[in-house]
């Protein structure tokens, strides 16, 4: 099979999976879930099959068609997109295993619709990952928003629907009101929106206009949750835990920071932005979001809301690293997408397991729970340590590269922000770990043990990936070094 045919199949397969889930769901739950797992595995296999060509320097592409002169729907495989696609497709397998245990144990309604929308969300995510230009990115970005709305509103009660509308309203409002005008402006300036090594805007825009256009892109990509366009993310916590994992670790937020990083590297160009003073505000905005979201997380008592604000802070690590505009930091931005995905999906899996087994949602209810749910809390501990950046976890690797890039740029603000946020991360995660393992258990609630084994298997697998990435990150570093001209010298 040619690489072009592989790309086409990757873009079509999730649609076939969604259709297969609908048909299988009419016969049996087991068949429906088998289609989900087999389809997710097939998609991951197809995505990963493109890795050898990419590592060899090839950039396979596929053009679907031209909508207007100079405006085409096209896809191209490059290092950053491959990282996102490989991450999302691989974690879809584990998330599907977890979802089966969660949805059955909690007797959730509309399970067929749930799995269908998951497949559609991965379809849109693959489109985002392999977009060859801004127009294609925008189309797939909007499809991702629309396909995840039914997942956020899954419970269907009035409070959930209100929160889901906040989710939809902010993401559509920012993309149509800011992201789309930025794309139109770019096409007007450069005559193209193609993602190009070195960028396309140098010589077409200068001065304060660069900072303004950058602002339209950054705040228009609301999925990156940079303050003040972050409220959709805590609002989405009304969704079932597997959806929260999708939103925070697999597809939605990663699509946001991925898009911003890709726009900085391939539309503006690192050298051009670094030489333009009006773009310097982005580092400050990201640093503000990191510290503020960490302080808000410190005050949360609901476990999922704490993790939501932790996500907002961790996403801005990627934005801040990309905005440092140095090779090591750009690689650090890409690597942190993967490190955060492994750690945060583990934390949400653990939160869902605790809810399923013990019906506990608040931090103060976790006293002594490690003795009843040792597998779950061991995984939670690993995920939390990765968020802090403690070796031997994935979070240490990405923070190392971001800090190295900050020193490369002599940017003390970034160094201070990482140190301060690491302290804040420790301040809200370490007490939970201590309470779960060493405090006396609260007497309230029914007797319980671990959650269903499918859920425990999934959270154990992601915890192991969080540890494994500390040692086996070489191929990712090598691939993402291709992001910047000259690699890491």
TrEMBL record:
Q: What is its main location?
A: membrane
Looking at the record's lineage, which domain of life comes first? Bacteria
- Transmembrane segments annotated in the record for this chain: 6-27, 34-51, 80-100, 112-129, 135-152, 164-190, 210-233, 245-269, 281-299, 306-325, 337-358, 379-402, 414-439, 451-472
* Cleavable signal peptide: none
Topology class, membrane: Multi-pass membrane protein
- Where in or outside the cell? Cell membrane; Membrane
Domain NADH:quinone oxidoreductase/Mrp antiporter transmembrane, by residue range, is 131-423
Q: In this record, what's one Pfam family?
A: Proton_antipo_M
Could you list this entry's UniProt keywords, alphabetically sorted: Cell membrane, Membrane, Transmembrane, Transmembrane helix
Q: Which PANTHER family match?
A: NA(+)_H(+) ANTIPORTER SUBUNIT D1, NADH DEHYDROGENASE
Which family does the UniProt entry place this protein in?
A: Belongs to the CPA3 antiporters (TC 2.A.63) subunit D family.
The name this protein goes by in its record: Monovalent cation/H+ antiporter subunit D family protein
